[in-house]
């Protein structure tokens, strides 16, 4: 019968609310606001179907004003901004343009593309400043992040722009290149993060094809390992070990080579504290300290792996035997090898929906305009204004030179007031759904493998399509129980995120005691999350076997584990360690190939992309993706072994091996497990 019906109803209501939230965010949001730069009137630059379709670059009338402190306070440069099709290529002031206009009117045509559409070439400088129709001067620039920035160059070790060190600002004053650089840096502080994001996006756009190839190879390699585990589990384990030790050894050797090569560069002796926090992450790889740290970490990992091999060698033999039995189960239920693909699809849908909803929520609202005073001496600064009537208001009279510029997207409606709450709801339901998908997979696999175990004559007594039957049974009867278990994990993860958020917001005000308490809380929540995940996994196995509710199943699983404490040491720790080595081997092998390929060190097979900003972007993506793919496939084996062992413990408690109550486990595995004392002495008697 159906279990935990109340939790099932709450879960379904949350999903319905999540869908409604996505639809409302879809109506109010506009992702273009995050993709295109916006001028002072709130219009997008480069948006198709608008007058700015061919004007993809944002131009600042007076970049020198961007040194104002209001840049960081209001996240806006206090100067007029318009969309242009190209950046200026030469020095020219408005007054100089007027003098040239009397001789050749083409100079105005070149200058007017950096002015508003209402601008005229015959205004006085005073009237120009009052109307703010044109910049008082333009200088050589180039597009960067869809914005016009000064085209700096170095001549004989001196910073110049257009071969000049000083230039006219159009207001009768002379400015230096250093001032212009400081103004550009004022904007760069706001755009550095976006610059990193765009470079990463460019690298993904260049290498997505090769990334997919690498992930496909990882999938094929994982499948091959799973098939070989059925026939040569013992031999394959030593392949895992030699491969992992060899990959880590290669990493140590490469780090040592980089460390010795950098000794010839004087700048490499700098430390991370010397260069500070940099958005250009490649700078860290030019330091000896970075490679030395990597080398030490890899050496420690290598020693730990070797020591675990030495001290766990006997239990590893038992784990290999369990893996062989698991291989038989998977051989009789081969559809379980395909199930990770379904889990991946469901997780991808959840992640995509969460990201899209978050983007639409973040871009919901209407343009909001704020008063910006270029000189920073206006009592009305940062107040909301209307650009259509701003010049006729008292603010324009009280603050000469003040501007009514676009600031951000927002609103005062009930929906806009609760957008932060909607973000929290979006995150929480996302965590709940992710954990539910994982729980559904674990319960379905446990049901399929339990069907295999409790078949007396294998494979004759195994019903057809055991995985699909178990999946349908979990959806139909136990959605509430799975939602209950995943809700607990989601709440713990939500508390961890809130804790990290508070730590980030209060970092500057923390003392030593508060930092210590934060570390203790992180550690406690980490332990709690892993303990609950372990208990939930075994509870899902009991649900798949008996069909009881979550609390009863969790209680039964806990009591069963307490009666078989050594199970944790063998089936969980040791078996997972063996499978973990397989995951590391898959991810490490693909990672080494990807490193050689993306760094142009493997030209024999194929020529890698040469125009990457950061080669580590596709490299880390391939390594992480390969590990997740391997984890998905090897988790089938982990769930198989754990289900078989739980069933084995139940089998020993329910049966005695007699003709009336025979054991369902194979005699070979039964003898080995009893010999290795994996059950209490009382049960053996």
UniProtKB/TrEMBL annotation:
<dbReference type="Pfam" id="PF04515">
    <property type="entry name" value="Choline_transpo"/>
</dbReference>
<feature type="transmembrane region" description="Helical">
    <location>
        <begin position="332"/>
        <end position="356"/>
    </location>
</feature>
<feature type="transmembrane region" description="Helical">
    <location>
        <begin position="235"/>
        <end position="253"/>
    </location>
</feature>
<comment type="function">
    <text>Choline transporter.</text>
</comment>
<feature type="transmembrane region" description="Helical">
    <location>
        <begin position="5"/>
        <end position="27"/>
    </location>
</feature>
<dbReference type="InterPro" id="IPR007603">
    <property type="entry name" value="Choline_transptr-like"/>
</dbReference>
<dbReference type="GO" id="GO:0005886">
    <property type="term" value="C:plasma membrane"/>
</dbReference>
<keyword id="KW-0325">Glycoprotein</keyword>
<keyword id="KW-0050">Antiport</keyword>
<feature type="transmembrane region" description="Helical">
    <location>
        <begin position="291"/>
        <end position="312"/>
    </location>
</feature>
<dbReference type="GO" id="GO:0015220">
    <property type="term" value="F:choline transmembrane transporter activity"/>
</dbReference>
<protein>
    <recommendedName>
        <fullName>Choline transporter-like protein</fullName>
    </recommendedName>
</protein>
<dbReference type="GO" id="GO:0015297">
    <property type="term" value="F:antiporter activity"/>
</dbReference>
<feature type="transmembrane region" description="Helical">
    <location>
        <begin position="574"/>
        <end position="598"/>
    </location>
</feature>
<keyword id="KW-1133">Transmembrane helix</keyword>
<keyword id="KW-0813">Transport</keyword>
<feature type="transmembrane region" description="Helical">
    <location>
        <begin position="619"/>
        <end position="639"/>
    </location>
</feature>
<dbReference type="GO" id="GO:0006656">
    <property type="term" value="P:phosphatidylcholine biosynthetic process"/>
</dbReference>
<comment type="similarity">
    <text>Belongs to the CTL (choline transporter-like) family.</text>
</comment>
<keyword id="KW-1003">Cell membrane</keyword>
<comment type="function">
    <text>Choline/H+ antiporter.</text>
</comment>
<keyword id="KW-0472">Membrane</keyword>
<feature type="transmembrane region" description="Helical">
    <location>
        <begin position="208"/>
        <end position="228"/>
    </location>
</feature>
<feature type="transmembrane region" description="Helical">
    <location>
        <begin position="429"/>
        <end position="454"/>
    </location>
</feature>
<keyword id="KW-0812">Transmembrane</keyword>
